[in-house]
Amino acid sequence: MTSSDSGKAGTVDTLSGGPRRRARRRGGAAPLPLLVPALIGLAFLVLPLVALLIRAPWHSMPDLLTSTEVWQALRLSLVCATAATAVSLVIGVPLAWLLARVEFPGRGLVRALVTLPLVLPPVVGGVALLMALGRNGVVGKWLDSWFGVTLPFTTTGVVIAEAFVAMPFLVISVEGTLRAADPRYEEAATTLGASRFTAFRRVTLPLIAPGIAAGAVLAWARALGEFGATITFAGNFPGRTQTMPLAVYLALQNDPEAAIALSLVLLAVSIAVLAGLRDRWMTAS
Amino acid sequence: MTDIEKPSRYDVDAPSADGLDARLVVQRGSFRLDVALTAAPGDVVALLGPNGAGKTTALRALAGLVPLTDGHLRLDGAELDRTPPESRPVGVVFQDYLLFPHLTALDNVAFGPRCHGAGKAAARAQAAVWLERMGLAAHASAKPRRLSGGQAQRVALARALATHPRLLLLDEPLAALDARTRLDVRAQLRHHLADFEAVAVLVTHDPLDAMVLADHLVVIEEGRVVQRGTPTDIARHPRTDYIAHLVGLNLYRGEAEGHTVHVDGGSTVTTSEDLTGPVFVAFPPSAVTLHRDRPTGSSARNFWRCEVSGLETHGDQIRVALGGELPLAADLTTVAAAELDLHAGAEVWATVKATQTHAYPA
Amino acid sequence: MMQVTGAGAAALLALTACSSSDDDSSAGSDSAGSASGKLSGEVTVFAAASLKESFETLGKQFEKAHPGTKVTFSFGGSDALAASITGGAPADVFASASPKTMKIVTDAGDNAGEPATFVRNQLEIATLPGNPDKVASLKDLTDSDLKVVLCDKTVPCGAAAEKALTASKLKLTPVSYEEDVKSALNKVVLKEADAAVVYKTDVKAAGDKVEGVEFPESADAINDYPITLLKESKNTDTAKAFIALVRSAEGQKVLTSAGFLKP
Question: Does chain B touch chain C (at least 3 C-beta pairs within 8 Å)?
Fold first, then answer.
């Protein structure tokens, strides 16, 4: 609650601060069969990013970074990824709860369906969204004729495409946390007079907050980098649906240097945001 | 135990008895729980039985966390069979307490009042009173992980009582505590239960807890009630080998003065513990030795003149119920019983070594 | 959907094409063949997405005419293909949809010999079947009620459309700048957009799913398709023979029937 409280909590809480601190102290004892592949793994992930930095056209960076198109795309990316994460939270957390806590026939199948967007090529996801929510889509047809709402080629369309691709990350993360959390806390709450919803809101939700936060970060990061579903479902129009990944891809067509520069901007912003959020959560837990 | 004719549920002329009147039937796969329970306000009932007997299922059924397959559940005359747990006037102290880890002790206790419509400030004020009563005022702002086992237990009790339940359920209330804390907490819990004006049902596999805390014992084996009665009744006249083995305990209340306990009724028991004030003193029937004549030169410090009031065979053991200076139960082998020529009305001397008795603060 | 499965289908076609070429060795004429002995081996052709249908037909013809050869295609946006060639992708032939993208390859010195224009492609407006919005000219597309998609300016069809629009002093705000011509066309196929400015060949390939509307301004933005042998080619004879087939009368017949113009 207060800063001193959270400081102490870090030493007590074995789930967050504790083991990490201990691991660091014993760093030298890491066995080679683990250490070597671990370092290879790290290099594998970091090397391409380092290469991007080495080959970055630093001299032309100032020009690129002052271009309004870049800022427009960056702003749109951040707004849409955040909105998509919010959408995922509002409908994804209850879905995760349903999967983790309610026994119903075909639950395994539903769980598989939820994770499907993870394996679906995003472009296919975009086509699927067009067929469902497009102007001529199964549902979109009615949205158009009843409410005059068409989603493709709009910023809302970007948010939908990103949420479609990113939400499974959140659902899986939250469901895992829910399964690990003791359901008897909810029971304890109901014996104290809490409805199931109140029990969820006042007991379960705070208990699984770290899992939700982790899932939200994953979803946000996934949404920020989303390309295939977005360009297929929402198209590409600067300021409206052209997010950074789209701008990067199109820049790659005739100006690879610009593409690298744009990618670095996207990377820098996401690192700043993710690192900032992580620190906050770590001290708050 | 015997299925007494109960008035029909819809019988308007039936007296709307206060307290608990339940028959809990829960079918789960091949396991069937079928337990009838009645208790008047102020009663403390202990469900005693081995692991897997269905005690906890019975408790969960009372709380509404497990639906009844059959039977009924009436509390102070109100039908609760179909009432969801949040609408039952029932408080539960869970085995490992299940204090909400993200809330302070105060907010844990305030949770119930909040759910029952109290404002935040009012709920906290009520909670503060409960914590005060439990002697935990100093720990109001502590998170559960910083409370000791005994403190957590009292917070859990305060949390359950703060909703003013008409039925208080305690699941193995002392099982999570170490032996030392257990003594204190058991004594405190006894006080709080004595103050509680409605029905309390506790589940335990520990006969001592059951006998110290409860007025009535209901012994369950494999989903069925095998015996019910007062702790003394059951200890004297166990109906099954399991009960004989489990509940075989001579338990007395008294005042301690050093190593001597003056038991209610006039006798004294010498113990190895050094205590003062109100205590319980207990020893198992197997610790009792019987003699035809007044023992001389025996190392036992405790001997009483008794009269055999009953004999019951359990396997190769015989449990002897004794009256006289100190009513007690003794376990003998059949051979020893034959040698002593035991029969109802026979006069014997009973001895117990001080080292085999245990005294606990009451 | 067609767009998405296209690559897989192409790979499948290429596979079946090569397996069938073995058991049918005697058939086929050798009209485009070279005089210098028997051709063999595999050629990899990087070709603009708009060439897909025509080149697959030509590939099969080639394999039939020269048993023992195998033509493998990689279709994609010309820019992406050019980027992978300069990045070292192993290819024998590059057929691009614009001189500009070909220039990327020649500037890098990855070509062997001068690129030659083998066909030209003209823009056309693709509308919904039956042309319900009565689109008759490029100007009609500037109607703000119409949802029009263009190719992004970075890809040839987008550059060409922009050229046509500038030449006719029209200002057109599309709902989207698509990343390639096929996805622009697909937006009309899926009825998400009312019209798209694409190539004549794409309209033709889409059959009755869209309706083509020719517009005079397209004459200002005709795209030349250059083809060249690549420096990295390991099988130059066979590769040259394939280029010869593309440029032969027989090859031109296949290409013009797909809607391409002769150079």
Answer: no
How confident is the prediction along chain B (362 residues), in pLDDT tens digits per residue? 444 444 333 343 344 468 999 999 999 889 999 999 999 999 999 999 888 889 999 999 999 999 999 999 999 989 998 899 999 999 999 998 999 999 999 999 999 999 999 999 999 999 999 999 989 999 999 999 999 988 999 999 999 999 999 999 999 988 888 877 887 888 888 888 988 999 999 998 888 788 888 989 999 989 999 889 988 778 767 677 677 767 677 878 888 888 888 887 788 888 888 888 888 888 888 888 888 888 776 666 788 888 888 887 777 778 888 888 888 888 888 888 878 888 888 888 888 888 888 887 76
Enumerate the β-bridge partners of residue B263. B254
**What pLDDT score does B300 carry?**
62
Are A97 and A7 in the same domain? no
Q: Do A91 and A141 fall into the same domain?
A: yes
Q: Note the residue count of chain C.
A: 263
Chain B residue with minimal CA distance to A183? B98
Tell me the CATH number of domain B251-288+299-361, given options 3.30.470.30, 3.40.50.300, 2.40.50.100, 1.20.5.110: 2.40.50.100
The CATH number of residue A204's host domain is 1.10.3720.10
Could you say which of 2.120.10.30, 3.40.190.10, 3.60.110.10, 3.40.190.150 is the CATH number of the domain covering C2-120+224-257? 3.40.190.10
Interface of A with C (CB under 8 A): 121, 123-124, 127, 130-131, 134-136, 152-153, 231-232, 234-238, 241-242, 246, 249-254, 256
How far C96 CA sits from the closest chain A CA (Å)? 13
Q: Cα(C199)–Cα(C151) distance, rounded to whole angstroms? A: 10
Task: Choose the closest CB to B112 out of A192, A206, A207.
Answer: A192
pLDDT by residue (tens digit) across C15-58? 333 333 333 333 333 444 444 457 788 899 999 888 888 999 99
Q: What is the pLDDT of residue B88?
A: 93
Q: Break chain B into its structural domains and give their ranges.
A: 20-99+147-248, 251-288+299-361
On whether residue A53 sits in a domain, the answer given is: no
CA distance A180 to chain B (A): 15
The CATH number of the domain covering residues in B20-99+147-248: 3.40.50.300
The complex scores an ipTM of 0.74
* Closest by Cα among B145, B148, B209 to B174: B209
CA–CA distance, A200 with A194 (Å, rounded to integer): 9
Distance CA A25, CA B69 (A): 56
In terms of Cβ atoms closer than 10 Å to its own Cβ (0-12, 13-18, 19+), residue B259 is middle
Mean per-residue pLDDT of chain A: 84
A49: in domain: no
Residues A85 and A147 grouped into a single domain: yes
Instruction: State the best of B102, B103, B120, B155 to mutate against chain A, taking most chain A CBs within 10 Å.
Output: B102
Whether A52 maps to a domain, the answer reads no
Residue range C110-131: mean pLDDT, rounded: 91
Q: B91 vs A185: CB contact, 8 Å cut-off? A: no
Position A262: which residue type? L
Could you give the 3-state DSSP secondary structure of residue B319? strand
Amino acid at A77: S
d(C-alpha B316, C-alpha A34), whole Å: 61
Residue A233's CB is within 10 A of a number of other CB atoms, namely 31
φ/ψ (deg, to 5) at B265? 115, -10
